[in-house]
Amino acid sequence: MAKARFGTETIFHLSMSPLPPPPSSYLFLAAAAVALFSLIASLYLYVGSKKAQLDHIPGPWLAKYTDAWRGYQAWRLNHYKDLSNYQINLIGRYGDLVRIGPNIVLCFDPEAISTIYGFKERLEKVN
């Protein structure tokens, strides 16, 4: 604390020095935390993908692990009206069964519906 005298008054000035830069150990801890978070998130997505047991069904690479791919495609379809439906393009590229999410399969084969849903299930008509 610095003391200055002006006439009969004494004024105290707090000299605030800037904070020193963080030591490199803080930067190392931040980098380690980011790496650990990335590893845990990757493992979570990988295990979730394997739990679905849909590895044999082809589809876009990112769609195996997250629904972000499908969300991006829906956003593109809503914002760019001149684009064709991405599902039709996927069927042309990958076949009648396409994995479009970690637990979501696009089926365009009418014969596969009875296998997927079973004989006792009733399919509702959608307009």
TrEMBL record:
InterPro entries (UniProt xref): Cyt_P450_sf
Keyword check for Translocase: no
Residue ranges crossing the lipid bilayer per the database entry: 26-47
GO molecular function per UniProt: heme binding; iron ion binding; monooxygenase activity; oxidoreductase activity, acting on paired donors, with incorporation or reduction of molecular oxygen
The entry's keywords: Membrane, Transmembrane, Transmembrane helix
Name the record gives this protein: Cytochrome P450 oxidoreductase
Species this chain originates from: Capronia epimyces CBS 606.96
